[in-house]
Design goal:
single chain, alpha/beta, 7-stranded mixed beta sheet
């Protein structure tokens, strides 16, 4: 709140003060004068107090002092080369990329300040501090263990982004437990929207959580706490911290736009249209209206409970966020007992506190809500209850696909894919149907780790390499021809001694003899891939061409093309391989001995690398017949 008011008085702004700080630190690094250090320290104190004029003045003095100082920075000492066991490559890894192997979370006993305040925010807006008594009560309730939670909304099927969240939440708790510190993860359904949630989704989520090898300490539902959440809402009304509002969606949008414009222009006061007309309703009237909401005396969308936040804050999440709304829909878990439902912003933090979660791990889009001066901690502060640590990381994004349940739902409902388990989707059901294993998916999540970057998309081949590596080690080998080209071997009887076919034994796995052997049958007519033949040879082609020799894998034979027939088939001869070293070796199957099969070959779902880049534009969806055109 202070930042906007101070900046509007024509003096130094927060931005100019921080810029001056950067200059001071740069020159101090070159010439570390002790007096300069004191001035920088004093400037930082002034910056925290939002006294930007004083902060800038102190930083400027420090810059001038260090520029003209005779102090010299010490040259860094060369570090000894790491031992062979600790390679340079390993030493430089981002520990976030090892989230499944390194415990990144601080000890629950250190949670006096659940979230560091944002720079420049006054201490009076720091809502994230626990009292010693509150922390003591939390530690007694948990026994001091690490407790994380995995809280999906049951409004769709889980995708690989959820697998990353599971890997982090369950993985950190598992590491703490393995280190003797104690750790567990609660599986919580964030079921606050009855119109979007189905039992079908709940069942699918539970199945996939366990399929990936995760065992929750407990399964809970946000709806389990509806009665307590309602009691807390009454408490907030009586404290004057919330109010019942009757603005329409359009009116709310207009008032927020007004607040935003006032911040942009550094206004010291907000115009009347920035405020809801019902913001100053009396406590008694708010209690009466909230009871009317609970007993179904308002239509949907005509009344909702809002926090009475800080409209002067530069954090938009504090601009009177909605806490309760009316929905006349039966709930999949609580039935039709309630017609008022708490929002995510109200429920998330309170249930985290009630379940004594030590570390609430979320993606970066929740960062402003979970700032020390944001609604997550504001609400817990107003209720006087325990405040968990919140920890944000970048979402999992993969090229040529989408990882948004809303976008995935659109693809499914518009019939552009064949259900939630379409193998082209990155839903966990789709990946399982495509042949991915839990270990491959978990390996992928461990490989990409957790970072603060919200814009980086992982290339599709990184995911594919995880299953490819696993299958290379485990899968038994077989020959299959997708686009067959028939090859008639004219001298087969001569080479086979008059037999109709020849048998040879080959290993089931080229690198693992323990996996046994299989028998191949070579006949006088075989099939090769049509892409492995060209009418005209060139030096970069390893396949078959007129007059060219290639090896037949596993057969110990050399195949030579003699002619291409009018029907498109190939005539060829064979001979024992001997010491020949052909340029290429082809896989094959025999006519009359191979079996027909159905092959489902998939490419990228989208034809553009980032389908989310332009949400208003048409996006081509890959598929049969050249694809469809889809608009979000």
């Amino acid at each position: 709140a202070a930042t906007m008011a101070d900046a509007a008085q024509g003096g130094a702004t927060k931005s100019s003060a921080k810029s001056a700080k950067g200059d001071a630190q740069k020159y101090f690094k070159k010439k570390p004068d002790p007096e300069g250090a004191k001035l920088i320290e004093q400037g930082e104190e002034a910056l925290k107090a939002s006294d930007f004029d004083k902060a800038k003045e102190l930083f400027d003095k420090a810059t001038d002092l260090c520029k003209n100082s005779t102090a010299q920075a010490e040259k860094p000492k060369k570090e000894p080369k790491p031992a062979a066991a600790e390679s340079k490559k390993d030493a430089g890894k981002d520990e976030g990329a090892q989230a499944a192997r390194v415990l990144l979370l601080a000890s629950p006993s250190a949670n006096m300040q659940a979230k560091p305040p944002r720079e420049g925010v006054a201490e009076s807006y720091n809502y994230a501090a626990n009292t010693a008594e509150t922390l003591k009560g939390h530690m007694a309730a948990t026994g001091g263990i690490y407790r994380t939670r995995f809280p999906p909304e049951p409004n769709g099927y889980l995708h690989i982004g959820h697998a990353k969240a599971m890997n982090f939440n369950f993985g950190q708790a598992r590491l703490a437990k393995e280190q003797g510190l104690g750790g567990e993860t609660i599986m919580r359904f964030d079921d606050t929207n009855p119109t979007a949630e189905k039992q079908e989704y709940i069942d699918s989520i539970l199945k996939n959580v366990r399929w990936l090898g995760n065992e929750p300490a407990k399964i809970t539902y946000s709806s389990d706490y509806f009665q307590q959440l309602y009691k807390f809402a009454l408490q907030l009304i009586k404290q004057g911290d919330v109010y019942v509002c009757h603005q329409t969606k359009e009116q709310v949008k207009n008032s927020r736009d007004c607040i935003r414009n006032s911040h942009i222009h550094h206004a010291t006061e907000l115009p009347q249209e920035a405020y809801s007309p019902w913001r100053d309703t009396s406590l008694e009237e708010n209690l009466m209206k909230f009871e009317k909401m609970r007993t179904g005396q308002y239509e949907e969308g005509t009344a909702f409970l809002r926090m009475k936040g800080d409209l002067m804050s530069d954090n938009p999440a504090m601009w009177d966020t909605a806490f309760y709304r009316i929905k006349y829909s039966p709930h999949p878990h609580s039935g039709d007992f309630w017609c008022i439902y708490p929002t995510y912003d109200y429920t998330h933090c309170v249930v985290d506190a009630l379940e004594n979660i030590t570390h609430s791990l979320c993606t970066l889009e929740f960062e402003t809500r979970q700032a020390a001066d944001g609604p997550y901690y504001w609400l817990l502060h107003k209720l006087g209850i325990y405040k968990p640590v919140t920890w944000e990381y970048g979402r999992g994004n993969i090229t040529y696909n989408v990882l948004s349940k809303r976008r995935l739902n659109a693809l499914v409902t518009k019939g552009l894919v064949n259900g939630w388990d379409d193998p082209r989707l990155l839903t966990l059901d789709g990946l399982r149907r495509r042949g991915y294993t839990p270990t491959a998916i978990n390996s992928f999540c461990e490989a990409i780790g957790v970072t603060r970057s919200g814009t980086v998309s992982t290339q599709t081949h990184v995911l594919e390499n995880c299953i490819r590596k696993e299958m290379d080690e485990a899968a038994l080998r077989a020959f299959a021809v997708v686009k067959p080209l028939k090859v008639n071997i004219s001298n087969f009887a001569e080479v086979s001694g008059g037999k109709e076919s020849m048998e040879m034994t080959v290993p089931n796995h080229p690198k693992d003899a323990t996996k046994g052997e299989r028998t191949l049958v070579l006949a006088k007519a075989i099939y090769i891939e049509s892409d492995d033949y060209r009418d005209t040879d060139d030096k970069d082609f390893f396949g078959l061409a007129p007059g060219k020799e290639v090896g037949l894998l596993g057969a110990g034979m050399i195949l030579t093309c003699t002619k291409k027939e009018k029907d498109g088939s190939i005539s060829a001869t064979i001979k024992p391989r001997g010491d020949s070293k052909p340029k290429g070796n082809l896989h094959w199957v025999s006519h009359g001995h191979a079996v027909k099969c159905e092959m489902r070959l998939y490419n990228n779902l989208f034809t553009v690398e980032n389908p989310m880049a332009k949400q208003d534009a048409a996006v081509a969806v890959a598929g049969g017949g050249g694809g469809a055109v889809f608009v979000w």
